[in-house]
Specification:
The chain is an alpha+beta fold.
């Protein structure tokens, strides 16, 4: 059991120091716990495993055989251990998804709802979406992807996806892989409220790809700049941040992961 912020990372780092490639650290929690342990195992040979005991369990949803604990416990002793990629954002590592704009506003509101109404669990995200839809939905930044020309973009949300799911099951990047040396850039243009309402269910199911307002591509690195006098509102695996500019890149085969 952990008893303070960062304690899980300390325990994982100590375990990795003693056991190296012979060890597996099992993160028993949600996406935040998995994110914390992944940072601690970076640069070691010790593998990361996940038992999904959190609220969203989005990374586990994509890359484990099940979210059923009984099934996972029957398989955990015989994992397939393979290296996976991480996403580096301004020197910090993202295991799953880093997103910007509307999604981050929703994330901030969801966290506030969870603090007051923890019994809502996974329903807190849809509730936060519904409330946020009635505020400003247009964000602006400049971006240069894979060494391309800098261009201004207007968006309702944008996401850098190493994993496939976030927000309790929303699927922005159904083709994303943690083993291909790339990440998926997903950007959705500003839309009217009726268009947003029509797209939400498709976005949750991963059926939004191909919509004319949705732009996605595989990238390895990029640079984002906030609009003058503003800051980019973002979150790294659910942890909120603001920055005037962002440099990101994929880090191939950064840590070992136990698939089971």
């Amino acid at each position: 059991m952990t008893d303070r912020a960062g304690h899980g990372a300390e325990l994982a780092a100590e375990f990795a120091l003693h056991h190296g490639a012979q060890g597996i650290v099992v993160a028993c929690g949600g996406d935040g716990t998995a994110h914390e342990i992944a940072q601690a195992l970076l640069g070691t040979e010790t593998a990361l495993a996940i038992l999904p005991l959190g609220t969203g369990n989005d990374f586990a949803r994509a890359f484990l055989s099940s979210l059923n604990l009984d099934q996972l416990l029957s398989r955990i002793a015989q994992p397939q251990i393979r290296p996976i990629d991480l996403l580096e954002v301004n020197g910090r590592m993202s295991l799953n998804i880093t997103s910007f704009g509307f999604d981050t506003r929703v994330q901030a509101l969801m966290m506030a709802i969870n603090r007051r109404l923890r019994w809502l669990r996974s329903m807190s995200y849809p509730l936060a979406i519904a409330i946020s839809l009635f505020g400003n939905r247009t964000f602006t930044c400049s971006c240069a992807l894979d060494g391309g020309l800098r261009q201004d973009v207007h968006y309702i949300l944008a996401a850098l996806c190493n994993g496939r799911y976030y927000g309790g099951g929303f699927n922005p990047a159904p083709q994303a892989s943690v083993e291909d040396g790339t990440i998926e850039w997903v950007q959705i243009d500003p839309l009217s409220l009726p268009r947003i309402l029509g797209l939400i269910s498709k976005y949750k199911q991963g059926r939004h790809v191909g919509d004319p307002a949705v732009h996605s591509r595989s990238v390895k690195e990029g640079h984002l700049w906030a609009a003058p006098g503003q800051a980019l509102l973002g979150n790294i695996d659910g942890e909120l941040f603001e920055a005037a500019e962002i440099r990101f890149k994929v880090v191939p085969s950064a840590i070992r992961f136990a698939f089971f």
